[in-house]
Amino acid sequence: MINTRFLILSFLAALPILSCQNEKKDPPINQITRKPSYHKKASQPQESHLPNPNLNTKDIIVLSQKHSPNSISCDLDGDHLLDTVNIVQNTENKKYGLEIILGNKKVDYIGMGKDILGQGFDDLDWVGVFEKAPKGELYWNNVNDDGDIMSDEDVKESDKIKLPHDGIFIHQEEACGGGVIYWKNGKFDWIQQE
Which stretches does UniProt call biased (Polar residues) (predicted)? Predict the structure, then answer.
């Protein structure tokens, strides 16, 4: 009698545990979507080439394994086609930047050893926050010419920029420094954010 009770109680106690293991859960919905990349993984061996005009960029540009997320999708140029922005690394100089693949298949590169939109730096190694800046949001340069951070009250309404299309928000994690990259008059521009 005691063995039967013990077996029944043991079975009833194990039943919730077993049923939880078989329960299927939907994955969480994330607004940042990842697209397949045709880059070599950083862990794959890379051929070491000196600068060569015949060198294919896919041979020296790899999708960043350091940054997560390392890819976002948005409409940067307002053509209603999905654009993909990847954080990538140049394997020759080890510097990070952005690969922007527009919906019309045009590809632009920012950084990786080339000055980033006149900001005085050429590497995005420091990026800790990488996300879409939504169309219609208000942004403004909040650092003055002397390098001082300006309060919202110090910024004129005429200096505030309402994004005409989605942008790219990058920022140093848990520190000051970053900006919004957005499409303005047929090219990319920068809005300084603290």
Answer: 43-55
Tokens of 87: 């954080």
In the block, residue with structure tokens 């060569």:
52
Q: What is the pLDDT of residues 98-144, one digit of tens each?
A: 999 999 999 999 999 999 998 999 999 999 999 999 999 999 998 88
The alpha-helical segments, DSSP class H, found in the chain are 2-22
Measured between alpha carbons, how far is 180 from 40 in angstroms, rounded to an integer? 28
Q: Are 123 and 138 in contact (CB under 8 A)?
A: no
Question: CA 190 to CA 168: how far, in whole Å?
Answer: 10
Question: CA 117, CA 168: separation in Å to the nearest integer?
Answer: 13
* 100 sits in which H/E element: strand 96-101
Residue 136 tokens, joined? 């219609």
The rounded radius of gyration (Å) of the Cα atoms in the chain is 24
